[in-house]
Amino acid sequence: MVIEDFHEMVLIQMKRQDKTWKYLGELIGTSPTYAKQIVEGVQKGPKAQEYKRIIANDLQIVIVKGV
Q: Which has the closest alpha carbon to 63: 15, 18, 7?
């Protein structure tokens, strides 16, 4: 089974690794709400894309484009 939704992958990995929105917010230096908006795709700017890569890297999620 391949999960293509980034939000879903983050939720799964957060549960497995026992991490919270507060942790992700602190990881990228923002609020938990902003971190959640980045993961959900509400924030889409260049800085948000950078934060998304940081979050994915921390949660050990591999983002493959074009597949």
A: 7
